[in-house]
Amino acid sequence: MKLFKIFLWLFLIALTSSLILAMASDRIGEHKSSTFGKAYADFKASWGGEIGIILPKFIRKKKAEEKVWDAKSGNYVPTQTFLDTVLTPDSIQLSANLDYKEQSFSWLNFNAFEASNEEIYVIQNSTKETFPLYLNLQSLLFVDVLLSGASLYTDFVLEIHNKNKVLTDIRFNEPALIWSDFKPGESLEVRLKYKVKGIDVFRYLTSEYRNSIIKKLNAKIIVNSDEFELYRFGLSHRIVKENGKTIVSFNLENFTTTEDIGISFLQANQYLDRVESLVARSPLACIVFILVIFVFSQVQKIRFNYLHYLFLVSILVFYYLYVTYLIRFIGIWPTFLISGVLTGIMFYVYAPRVFGKDFAYKIILPSLGSLTVLLSAVFLLPIFRGLLFITIMFVFFVVIMVAIARSKVDDWPIFED
User: Which residue ranges run through the membrane (predicted)?
Assistant: First the structure.
């Protein structure tokens, strides 16, 4: 009867703890999709979203004559039209200075930045004809933010530098005449300067030139932070640090690419998926912890009452609850640190006093630390998370099996009258 009661009690503890942890995991998913998602949408609607700068297109318009069917006369009549040819610049220089600073909104932090940009395009008339040169300056591409209505261009200047001509009558997304007589052998140096705000991602859409050979491209992105990664890492690049800033540079010649040049900041919510996966698997960690405590308390003849199991398991449960809710407001490492400290306090004020230092520090603490902090670190790894999780569970079960094999089960306190 005693054996049945204790197993029933442990089953109820495991079941209740698993339900609590399952609800905590769902809460992370809700936070990711609704709480964070709504705040993210509201913030980027006012500040701006991911920035992808579409490089301008230089267009040669050539007069041509074609015949069009005229229904009234019943004949083909000649009409004048223009054939557009997109010209690839001889050289492209891109320079961006990003002032990165987290912005708080609805108690959440976002990777906000303001970028000061300068683009220099040198284009040469390599033909034997004189023609008007047009520029199609396309508006910024905001990923998922095109409908937000956020206007983020400031301090915009467009000029033909070597001709001392500032272009003012420019409309986005439609060809604008920038030089009426582009003569054979003539070169134009077109410069764009502007500032733009965004979050998470800053990139130049060099993939827009994927059907052309770019003769020379020099790009430099300066940012006052090292908490970022390359948006795409296939293109040859160099990263250096100078005066507290990180400089990412690209120097390429005679190439074509489908990749974009840029950086992406490490998002405050990037670990939500991993933390959700961690908490979703925490019920198994809870069950293993109960098994460890039960088996070793019997092997070492530590007499447990029902509340002892409840309080010890609650330490593990509270760790994952702290992780669930703290991750919303602070970074991943502070979350794990604070959760570990708070649950460590719970362990310190209870376990050594009740079970003695030997059992508390040799059995409970290593098991608790492995099934909380160590397991949390495993789920931050980019790969092998599942394999390492299974390995940890395997080690625990081997330890339990060895402990049972070396003990006399008939002498366990639970079998005493």
Answer: 278-299, 306-323, 329-351, 363-381, 387-405
As a whole number of angstroms, the distance between CA 409 and CA 35 comes to 51
CB 378 within 8 A of CB 385: yes
The secondary structure of 220-276 as a DSSP string is EEEES-S-EEES---S--EEEEETTEEEEEEEEEEE--SPPEEEEE--TTTTHHHHH
Half-sphere exposure of 260 (CA within 13 A, CB side): 16
Residue type, 151: S
| Secondary structure class of 205 (helix, strand, coil) | coil
Q: How far apart are CA 219 and CA 396, in angstroms?
A: 52
Q: How confident is the model at residue 144 (pLDDT cuts 50, 70, 90)?
A: very low
CA distances from 173 to 54, 55, 210, 397 (A): 11, 12, 20, 64
We find that the CATH architecture of domain 52-266 is Sandwich (2.60)
pLDDT at 346: 92
Q: In degrees rounded to 5, what are phi and psi of residue 192?
A: -120, 135
pTM passes above 0.90: no
Distance CA 167, CA 148 (A): 28
The larger pLDDT score, comparing residue 392 to residue 234, is at: 392
Contact 144, 112 (CB under 8 A): no
Q: Which helix (H) or strand (E) holds 19?
A: helix 2-30
Q: Which residue has the tokens 């409840």?
A: 310
Separation CA 90–CA 213 (nearest Å)? 10
Annotated domain spans of the chain: 1-30+269-415, 52-266
CA 169 centroid distance within chain = 39
Q: Is the distance from CB of 92 to CB of 117 less than 8 angstroms?
A: no
The b-or-e profile of 103-125 (16+ CB within 10 A means b, else e) is eeeeebebbbbbbbbebbbbbbb
Phi, psi of 60 (to 5 degrees): -100, 125
Quote the pLDDT of residue 190: 92
Which residue is associated with the tokens 């420019």? 170
Which tokens is 73 given? 């006369």
Looking at residue 151, its pLDDT comes to 47
Which DSSP state fits 260?
P
Other CB atoms within 10 Å distance of the CB of residue 32:
18
d(CA 281, CA 139): 45
Assign 91 a pLDDT band (cuts: 50, 70, 90): very high
- Kindly state the helix (H) or strand (E) to which residue 273 belongs, with its residue range: helix 272-299
The pLDDT tens digits for 332-361 are 788 889 999 999 999 999 888 888 888 889
pLDDT at 147: 36
User: Average pLDDT, stretch 212-216?
Assistant: 86
Judge whether residue 33 has pLDDT over 70: no
